[in-house]
TrEMBL record:
Keywords: DNA-binding, Transcription, Transcription regulation. It comes from the Bacteria. It comes from Actinacidiphila yanglinensis. One of its GO terms (molecular function) is DNA-binding transcription factor activity. Gene3D superfamilies: Winged helix-like DNA-binding domain superfamily/Winged helix DNA-binding domain (1.10.10.10). Residues 1-135 form the HTH marR-type domain. This is DNA-binding transcriptional regulator, MarR family. InterPro entries: HTH_MarR-typ, WH-like_DNA-bd_sf, WH_DNA-bd_sf. The keyword Ribosomal protein does not apply.
Length: 138
């Protein structure tokens, strides 16, 4: 059986969706919607809303709504950027970091549960393949 790129992409997307669906209850218990979780998780590496929108490939207007919700819930705060006083950086609060870490733990546990279905050798090979695929083309 030969799988083309579209088939593999679809399988990967289905797996990620299944993992997220399995963790929806835990995210809800933390006070997070799925997309809010993605925004909260991205804040550490992309502290500006436009960067978050680009990284997550979602509209800037949607990021604005998620950021507003996360600020209201006390998970992130806005700070004036010292290097450009016209810009606000997003910073996770202690509560935000705890919620993010607990959500990531739940996702990791669900993913690990699914990984347990394959051999250690296959997991190692999967890691190698994913790392190779993430390398930028030269």
């Amino acid at each position: 059986m030969t799988a083309d790129g579209a088939q593999l992409w679809t399988l990967n997307q289905k797996l990620l969706s299944a993992v997220m669906d399995a963790c929806t209850g835990e995210l809800t218990d933390l006070g997070l919607e799925t997309k809010e979780f993605f925004v909260l998780a991205e804040v550490a590496t992309s502290p500006y809303p436009a960067e978050i929108a680009a990284a997550l490939m979602i509209p800037k207007a949607s990021v604005t709504v998620y950021v507003r919700n996360l600020v209201a819930k006390g998970f992130i705060r806005r700070e004036i950027d010292d290097e450009d006083l016209r810009r606000h950086r997003l910073v996770p609060t202690t509560e935000g970091k705890e919620a993010r870490d607990r959500a990531l733990s739940a996702l990791a546990a669900e993913y690990d549960r699914r990984l347990a279905r394959i051999t250690l050798q296959d997991r190692t090979e999967l890691q190698r393949i994913l790392q190779e695929m993430l390398k930028s083309s030269e």
